[in-house]
Amino acid sequence: MNVLSSRGTAWPTRESLSRIGVPRTRAVLDGIVLAALATWALASSYASGAFSGLETVLPPVGLLLCAGAFIAFHETTLEHRLLPSLGMLLVLAGVGWGAYAEGAEVAAAVPWITAAILAMERLPLAYGLATGVLMVGSFAMMQQGGPLGSVITVAAILFGGYSLRLDGQARGAGFRLLAQERAAREAEAVSAALGERARIAREIHDVLAHSLSAQLVHLEAARIQIEREPEGPFRDRILERVVAARGMAREGLAETRQALSALRGEMVPVEDFLREPAVADGAATEVRGAPRLLTAEASQAVRRVAQEALTNARKHAPGATVRVLLAYETDHVMLEVRDSGTAEKTGELGASGSGYGLLGMRERAELLGGSLEAGPEGEGFVVRLRVPA
């Protein structure tokens, strides 16, 4: 009983109520039928001699009311709003009752029958059936065809509306199947991409990460051995080179691990990542907006640009105050790395334009549909990245 009740009060799906997917010939035919009915009702109103001298005003007004109610009914049923939908049907019925009271029977029949068919096609079945029976039943009882003719008329009109309902439901089911298939294909593509990323991550880990780890071990052993040698200029120069190479290998290993985490989708939040190199370089970090999870591509772009910009500031504006700003905007994330500059270096960096990795950063941003601005601003130099996120 509950199942039957729920089915009777359930709305048709939005796909079945919309006109998307209706063949063009069918849409044209529907328009021709509606235009023909409106023309017939209007012409019969004039021919009947009804409306007591107001035939030049009332029939066009009634036609406009019916057209407005028809359009509004389409919208309210799309939104599954029952009371406004029933109200629009009452407008159609009211126009029909007014026409019938003035003696224009054809002008009365058209809105009544149209309201009944629309109710059966677009309302929850229980409400559509009740409304259709009320509309068509009232019309049939006023005719002279007798009880049997009234029953046949009611049944034929309700069956026509129900047939349109079934047609819409079949079309809606087709759209749902297409949407499910599209979602399955997208999920399959995502799964395949994740699998490929995992494979690439394994390859990088097996080759590059192991190689860098081995280099660190050997460089550390070399450092220890060199420190045991007697002090001297040559020993100090070699030790400096080895320590620098060890630092570069350590940074390369850290960046490799970050790239592996990005490929596996296991990256730490961007704001947490930015604080580490910023603290190491003595830069101040600020985060604006509500942090949210970024795509792997956007996250990597922010990280790489931050690293490159901090490196540039360290190399070309030594001793300058550096500020890192990460702002979560509505559709984008913005990174700004600003240094206070030094009098002799800021102009040189700004004049170079494409140096110091700026070209690579700009290309990375443009590949993601974003932008990168880099140049002198005030007394310092600013790198500003904005990417969709």
Structure, described:
With 389 residues, the chain is of the alpha+beta class. It is 71% helix and 9% strand. The protein has helices at 2-9, 14-17, 24-48, 58-78, 82-101, 105-122, 125-141, 146-228, 233-264, 270-280, 296-316, 346-352, 358-367; strands spanning 284-288, 322-328, 332-339, 371-377, 380-388. It has a five-stranded mixed sheet. The relative contact order is 0.06.
Order of helices and strands: HHHHHHHHHHEHEEHHEE
Q: Main sheet?
A: 5 strands, mixed
Give the terminus-to-terminus CA distance.
49 Å
The residue fraction in helices comes out at: over 70%
- Secondary-structure class: alpha+beta
Low-pLDDT parts are 1-5, 345-356
Q: Overall mean pLDDT score?
A: 78
- How many DSSP H or I helices? 13
How many DSSP-defined strands?
5
Q: What is the molecular shape? A: elongated
Strand numbers in spatial order across the main sheet: 1-2-3-5-4
Roughly how many Å is the radius of gyration? 38 Å
